Amino acid sequence: MTINRRDLLAASAGLVAATGLSALGTRPAFAQAEPTYTPEAGASLRLLRWAPFVQGDEDAWLANTKKFTEATGVEVRVDKESWEDIRPKAAVAANVGSGPDMVLCWFDDAHQYPDKLVDLTELGNYLGGKYGGWYDGLKGYATRDDKFIAMPLAAIGNAICYRDSHMKAAGFSEFPKDTAGFLELCKALKAKGTPAGFPHGKAVGDGNNYAHWLLWSHGGMMVDESSKVVINSPETIAAINYAKALYETFIPGTESWLDINNNRAFLAGQVSLTANGVSLYYAAKKDPALAELTADLRTTNFPVGPVGKSVELCQTTSAIVFSHTKYPEAAKAYLKFMYEAEQMNAWIGGSSAYCCQALKAFASNPVWTADPLHAPYARASETLRPNGYAGPLGYASAGTMADYVLVDMFAAAVTGQMTPEEAAEQAEKRANRYYSV
Amino acid sequence: MSTTSIMKRRSFAGLLQNNTALGVMFMLPAGVFLLCFLTYPLGLGVWLGFTDTRIGRDGVFIGLENYRLLFDDSVFWLSVFNTILYTSVASVLKFGLGLWLALILNEKLPLKSFFRAIVLLPWVVPTVLSALAFWWIFDSQFSILSWSLIQLGLIDQPINFLGDSNNARASVIAANVWRGIPFVAISLLAGLQTISPSLQEAASLDGATSWQRFRYVTLPMLTPIIAVVMTFSVLFTFTDFQLIYVLTKGGPVNATHLMATLSFQRGIPGGQLGEGAAIAVAMIPFLLASILFSFFGLQRRKWQQGGSE
């Protein structure tokens, strides 16, 4: 099949019309001039992505890719790697200048090698204009000096999962909305012998999510806008003291928890409240022996702290195109195709509430209302704050998180190894190792 | 045929007759192999330690800056302490228990070969698998050990194996010892079998007790093997990575972070290749010291011949 721009346009226009985009809240009136990308003759692409957490995600992604190949004749090979291996592999590809043409990377990866990436500003502005704008947090991960160095793709939602009957037994008819009420709930749950549990161990995902929520909800932050480390602050001490009080109500042993432990403990009925991605709900739903637990399972957003609004970390993923690719136009055409409403809606739907949209228009995707338990996960993109808030993204922010500076700060204090003041001071020292260089 | 070509053939044949030249030629492939796969990566690692290379970006030479930063880093010093503690305690335990096991297996037991095969099992199982098994054994909620003790009425609540700093250290050491014993035991057993029974008989005829026979016959004969086995054992333990990474990732609060795991954490997920390499290079002096100790310390002739020096 020869590649024909008109074919592609006609195909996408047809698809857009067929799905009834207006129903999904797109506002073409705001749309920028639609860019057109004509794949180079004989183009083929290689995409490296993280191994999916839910099968529907991969199925939808591959089905969309196949449609792109049918429409344009450009073959796209999709390779999977375990999510923790993406960061080093993408970095090596950027450094060596060969390997995959595109990567679905994590967090601030794009900011580690911005000069090795194809500029996607035109596409980013077009998609943002067409689909109600990007969420700020996700956009922050993908832009540098107002230029798109990556295409924000999704946030992996995180929400509190709890047992409704245990909460009611503890004397709460409604889930508390603020941190003070949340502490009371955890105390009551502990008194009833159905405690809560959040990881204080080296859990890459859950541990960082919890630690950042503790810090940010109390108004603390790692660095200010000028990258000055300001972790050693009264707000941080307040957050640590709050964490200590919460930790008292936890099931013993959470300081050794890695990513999977909270899921296991919750599914075994050992803890009645924790935070996790939607995968926990699906794990319960899949097991017939857990029907009772599934019926009792509820999800909600993290309570709001003194800072007055919901703030969370959440894992985020973006698509990047390396400048070493031989077919940048084909890569842009591919991304444009994948982000257009029909494909994006199919993918978000297929991911069963695991991946939260980067473009506001997709908030009306039926997946968020298909199950009341999905609702809290729909807010991930809205409430998330980039890692290393309020400073810029880059080596320092990535290094500080990879070194578990924040996770360790809370763990050292809650276990009593250090006073809150000592823990904050040590975190300041450790963060400075990255930020002062 | 011209004279020069004859000369050439002669000199080539002469080369083949020359033992030194022949030796060099035979060693060349191995030398190239070592150079490519051992010296080069090692040299590169040392070089990276002197640069600020990050994943995705070439670094520039910054001298000892990485080491100066590490010198002021409490987590690094904690990992050094952990590594030394982990290596020394685990090696002593592995040696003691391994030697004991080897002595038992060297006796006349029923089903001797069966037991010898069984002993090797922990060594045969891939580390990651045994680490996963230990992860369950040490789980804070589902530990079989805690469960059994609770059932027996000895404790009220699960033991916090990997959550408490000291418990966590003891737990990872226990897992490492379990895994390392077979190597020590089987190697020492091989050593024991090379000791001629006639020496033992002669000693018994002279009226030596079994302790004296062990101390003055078995042990001196075994020292060369012990030196080699323990050198390897210390090296394996010092550079251990998988067990820790699966069990704790260095937690709780870095109480079980070894230099190897810290090097990885900073180098790969953290992207600071230069600093990761510097931590790895910082392990070399310790490794060299342990090698020198075992070769010059344990292999002294006098000590092998039963002297007290």
Looking at CATH, the homologous superfamily of the domain at 64-196 and 222-299 in chain B is: MetI-like
The CATH H-level superfamily of the largest domain in chain A is Periplasmic binding protein-like II
Q: Which two chains have the most extensive interface, and how many residues on each?
A: A-B, 44 and 38 residues
Taking the sheet with the most strands of chain B, its summary is: none
- Major pleated sheet of chain A: 6 strands, mixed
Structural class of chain A: alpha+beta
- Percent of residues in helices of chain A comes to 40-55%
Oligomer: heterodimer
Instruction: Tell me the series of helices and strands of chain A, N- to C-terminal.
Output: HEHEHEHHEEEEHHHHHEHHEEHHEHHHHH
Specify the overall morphology of chain A: globular
Number of strands of chain A: 11
Domain ABC transmembrane type-1 (chain B): 80-296
GO biological process, one term (chain B): transmembrane transport
Transmembrane segments (chain B): 21-40, 84-105, 117-138, 177-195, 216-238, 277-298
Membrane topology (chain B): Multi-pass membrane protein
